[in-house]
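From the methods appendix. Each design record in this collection lists the tokenized structure first, followed by the designed amino acid sequence. Records were kept in a plain field format so they could be parsed without special tools. The example shown here is representative of the layout used throughout.

RECORD:
FOLD TOKENS (132 positions):
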């Protein structure tokens, strides 16, 4: 079971802007039903994804829901930090200027370098809570 400290799946993107929700809906059939997923507020309404509680219209969010959201955010930040590590490599964050058929190989290489770098760094479990 992944602990949130490793890249376990890479979906090489499409050309142009594509929302995460659209990619999720296209790929969810490939992913197992037994797997648990977490997402941000963009995924509210998706039954397979555990999302933060939204504030009701013209009301305040309860303290219980606020605390649950805070705990979910602590776990989600680990994934955001991995995304940041990938974007450090400019080829993965800016316009791709090489041959388009090389894009997938370059992105997978960047992710491999990140996995290698993470393996070389000792991560404290108290700083990186279990993601699942």
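DESIGN:
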């Amino acid at each position: 079971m992944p602990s949130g400290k490793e890249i376990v799946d890479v979906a090489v993107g499409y050309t142009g802007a594509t929302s995460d929700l659209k990619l999720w809906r296209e790929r969810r059939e490939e992913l197992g039903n037994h797997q648990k997923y977490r997402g941000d507020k963009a995924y509210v309404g998706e039954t397979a994804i555990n999302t933060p509680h939204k504030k009701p219209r013209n009301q305040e969010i309860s303290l219980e829901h606020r605390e649950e959201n805070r705990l979910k955010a602590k776990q989600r930040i680990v994934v955001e930090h991995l995304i940041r590590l990938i974007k450090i490599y400019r080829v993965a964050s800016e316009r791709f200027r090489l041959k388009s058929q090389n894009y997938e190989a370059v992105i997978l290489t960047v992710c491999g370098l990140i996995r290698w770098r993470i393996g070389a760094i000792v991560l404290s479990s108290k700083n990186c809570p279990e993601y699942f």
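APPENDIX NOTE: Residues 63-88 form the longest helix (26 residues).
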